[in-house]
Every structure is written in C-alpha cells, then in structure tokens.
Structures
1.
Amino acid sequence: MDDLRELYQELILDHNQNPHNYGEMDDPTATADGFNPLCGDRLTLYLRMSDEVVEDIKFVGSGCAISKASASIMTTLLKGKTRKEAITLFEMFHKMVTTGELPEGDLGKLAVLSGVYKYPARVKCAVLAWHTSKNALEGKESVAKTE
Ligand code: ZN
C-alpha cells in the first residue's frame, strides 16, 4: 500500500487542494459532463476552441483526490494543444494508466499517475476527466461514463 499512499500524497499536495483551471467558463464552445459511478466522481468540463486549438479549458466537480488531480494536470497539458494532439495525449494517458507503461514523449506531471494501473478501481478515477474532455473535443453531448 506504500505506493498508493505516496501517490496520493504527491497528487494531493500538487493538485487536489489547489487544482489548476478550476471554475466555470462564461463562453465555452463545448461542455461535457463526466460521472464515475464506481467512486462517485463527477465533473463538468468547459472547452473553448479557437479553430483547432484548445484556447482555454476549465472544470468543476466533486470527487476523490485522484480524479481531481488528474483533471487538474490534464487541463494544464491540453491548453494550447490542437484537437488532434489532445486526442493523442488521451490515448497515451489511457495506455499508461491501464498498463503502467510510460509512453514515449513528454507526459510531464502525468507520469505521477502511472502507478494507478495497479489499482483497477482507481484507473476509472484517473481517466474520467480525459474521457470527458475527449467527448467535448469530439462534440459529443452524452455524459461520459467510465464503464
Ligand atoms: Zn475517484
């Protein structure tokens, strides 16, 4: 359990108490909701695209430390990325948290979440924000579920 405790501590210190890009957005071009029934994590994601670039991204919600920290780290990474780059990051992240394999390229602080793969129930917490932002990026309006 030490790994998980360390993981939590790092995440909580970094992003849970003062999440980045937390709050509502007045003029989003897309929004999406996400819900992880297994843990009870909920979030609403706001996206503002300028052509094909993520100009701004914010979220609000309630959930466990991992879901919040993952959303916080994700928003800092996706800002300024193109739609295509954002989807590629989603795929890299998804692979990392389900296999534990660190992807090539720079996932920066996301790597802190790589240990999550050992705890399948927590993987859903970590990917919730990503599924939700993928829906927003693809213009889907349905609620992203982690099931
Ligand atoms: Zn959770």
Note: The helical segments are 2-16, 65-78, 83-99, 120-137.
2.
Amino acid sequence: MDYQAKIARNVAAIPRSGIRDFFELVQGREGIISLGVGEPDFVTPWHIREAAIYSLEKGQTTYTSNLGLLSLRKSIARYVGDFFDVAYDPAREVLVTVGVSEAIDLALRALLNPGDEVIFHEPCYVSYSPSIVLAHGRAVAVETSKADAFALKPESLAAAITPNTRVLMLNFPTNPTGAVTSRADLEGIAKLAIDHDLIVLTDEIYSELRYDGLTHVSIAALPGMRERTVLLHGFSKAFAMTGFRLGYACAPQPIIEAMMKIHQYSMLCAPIMSQYAALEALENGAPAMLAMRDSYHQRRDFIVKRLNQIGLDCHTPGGAFYVFPDIRSTGLSSKQFAMDLLEKEAVAAVPGSAFGPSGEGFLRCCYATAFNDLRSAMDKMEHFVQTL
Ligand code: PLP
C-alpha cells in the first residue's frame, strides 16, 4: 500500500522535531553530557509528588470536569491574578490542559480557519509552526536577531501583518534564546494587535524563570489586551513537573468554551492526580520554585562567562534556562558543530537551525544540568573549539 498517499497532506508537510531527531543519535550512548532536552534536572519537589500520591491513596482515580477541578481553577485564577495582574473567572475563563503543548494546539484549532495567517517570532519553540499547519493555518515567521537580543521589535511585526493575519504568538522568556522583551516593545506590539484586531496567544511557560531582578510583564495585562489574549501557562518548567503533563489556558469565556469543546472530545480532561499535584504546587510550591530559579541563575552566569571565554559570543539571556551562543566564528554550520561536538567530545547540544532558519549559526544549550556536568561540558567545548 502507498501509505504516504494515505497520510493527510498537512501532516505529511510538517517535519519531525529537530530536537528529537538529534536526540535519537544520543539514545543508548554512554557517557554523554547532555545540554539538550529543555527540562529541569530537579526531581519534582517532594511535597508536590506527595500530593499526587495522596490523591491515589484516597482513590481519586476518576475523570474530572472537562475544564479541570474547580479547586485547581480557583487556585490558577488566584495565582495568575497575583503574578500577571490579570483577573479571570475560574468558573468560565480557565481551562486545565495536558501541558502547554495541548493548550497551544487547542487555541490554534479553536481560532483558525483554513489559510488564516499566524505570526510568531523566530527562533522559537519547535511546535509553533507545525501546530499552526496542523490547524490548517499559514505560519508566518518574523525573524529576531542577536543585535536585538532576540526580542521581537514592533517594526518587524508591523511589516509581517497582512489582511489575513488572525493570530500573533508570543513567548517571553523565549525558548531557545532566553530572550525577554521590554514593556515599551510589548506596548508597541499590543497597539498593533489592537489596530489589526488580532488575537494574541502568549506562551508564558518560562515567566517565573527571570534573572537579575527583571519583572515579568504579560501582554494580557496591558490596557485593552485582556479581551484579545489567550494566556498559556503550565507547571513543567518552573515547578519541574514535565512528566505530570499539566498546563492551562486563561481567556475570555467564548474562546475557552471553543477550546473546551475540542479538549472535551479529544482529551476529556487532564489526569486527576496531576491536577492535585498542580494544586499543591500553586498553593505551597513557591519556596522550592524560587530555590530552583536561584540555582539556574548561578548556572546561567557560569555558562555565559565560559562560552565567551571559549570565544563563542553569547549574550546574557534574561530568562528561561537556555543560552544561545553564536558559533559562526568556527565556520561550521550549527548542525555540523553539534554533530562534531557529540562525536568528538560526547557533549550534546541542539543546532540552532532546529528552531527555524534564523537559528542557523547558533547552538542551544540548556543549562538545567548539574553544575559539575556543566563545568566539564564547557571544558570539552573549549577543547573542541581549540582543535578546529
Ligand atoms: N512552550 C514552550 C516555549 C516550551 O519550551 C515548551 C517545552 O519545552 C512547551 C511549551 C511545552 O510545555 P509542556 O510541557 O507544558 O507541554
């Protein structure tokens, strides 16, 4: 049978994740130091794991409301109100999802008609463009540059808007660059969204992980933006809960209702034990989260300093747990650099090109890795660069 002819065209059109492809090469090999997968090296704090265990002990093994446990939605609304300064009604404006991944998919499917354009800033998280294509939209990347510390500039956004643009996707702090954005730029972006009647999806998954005392401003909190913003957040990064698969969306009720309809038929609800764990994370998880953030901060300072010493020019990212050094001085493509580094020094990092064409010439290193491993990874990278 010609299976390719049986596969939906939009699925055939999307590539496999460049991160996963690269990490298949690493699978099963001994002694590799990985700066690869974007995942905390911490185990989920014990009191959060305990909440999941208690929920099982109490026999809480059922479906929940499609929207998620009301107690969790109330806690999310409180947290988002305090942290982002935006008020949402937990009964109608909060949807608990299976990670931010599901929330992105739901929002795009709920908002797009075939051919609608979605603008996002690039280099960006690997799922954005494929998720847009899977929702039958047209993905429009706006390149950000090292000169702007990979922040999205309103002028670049303005140039990409057409009469078919429906949605703008933002992610600050950004995966893979760690970029943050200034309030002034965010206000410029918000004005464009209002003038062109766009819906904004803001992926705030790294918003707690900011350094040097930077305050986080969500576009949802700017005047006139709450009504046109879908705020996406989750537990994977700041609370080290990737395996719990829990996220949420906050938005005006008609948008949440549309997302909930898809979620209801495709997922039904997020796992109940993860929801109880998330409730514990929001209610009592701040001290552990802040301790993890402080540890990432130290590691960021170390890795930025070492990369610059090695001669790989690296800006200091304001957030997330990634650095994005410029490897162009080596004359290698980002893929070649990453492959050779893996072969010769057993250090895994992701080629910048996995995050879109504008990531070429850069490497993504995740520094949520044990300090000793970071130190030897940098020594090995130094040796690799010296031998080029
Ligand atoms: N959004 C961004 C920017 C990410 O970097 C990631 C994971 O790396 C996700 C979403 C997916 O998060 P979740 O584990 O909540 O599905």
Note: Residues 3-44+287-387 form a domain with the Aspartate Aminotransferase, domain 1 fold (CATH 3.90.1150.10).
